[in-house]
Structure formats: structure tokens, C-alpha cells
Design goal:
By secondary structure, the protein is an alpha+beta fold. The chain has 1 helix and 3 strands, in the order βββα. The protein has one domain (3-72): Alpha-D-Glucose-1,6-Bisphosphate, Chain A, domain 4 (2-Layer Sandwich).
């Protein structure tokens, strides 16, 4: 069955005050597939196109690193 982890987050890149309306919401959903497991990451709450693009670039790096670690069993 699928599992969901949801949390809020404020990026230092945004330079916004840390209050609820300035925080992004991130949800990670893990679900089984016929060939393994799918990880879906959803982020909401971008205050500008610039912060969206910055976050997109960061997630790309995170996912590339995660893929390498999972495939090599290097978790630490």
C-alpha cells in the first residue's frame, strides 16, 4: 500500500520570514509497482518563478543522488 510523508518547509533561498504562509508544502508518496517502488514528490507554495526554478534544480540533484545511492545500496 502507498505511504505518504507530508511536511512544510521554508527555504533560506526565499529570504522570507519564517511564518506559515511563507512555507512550502512537500509531500512524498511511496507506492508499489509491478517492477518495484515509485517515489512521487510534490511541492506547493512557490512565491515566484525564480523560487520554483531553484527548487526544481535542487530536486533534480537530490533525485540523481538518491538514485545512485539506492542502486548501489549506499545509504550513508
Amino acid at each position: 500500500s502507498e505511504k505518504i510523508l507530508k511536511y512544510d518547509y521554508i527555504s533560506s533561498f526565499s529570504q522570507l520570514e519564517d511564518k506559515p504562509e511563507n512555507r512550502a508544502i512537500i509531500a512524498m508518496k511511496v507506492s508499489p509497482t509491478s517492477t518495484g517502488t515509485m517515489l512521487e514528490i510534490i511541492q506547493q507554495g512557490f512565491e515566484s518563478k525564480e523560487t520554483y526554478e531553484h527548487s526544481e534544480s535542487n530536486w533534480k540533484s537530490v533525485m540523481e543522488d538518491m538514485k545512485k545511492r539506492v542502486e548501489s545500496n549506499d545509504w550513508m
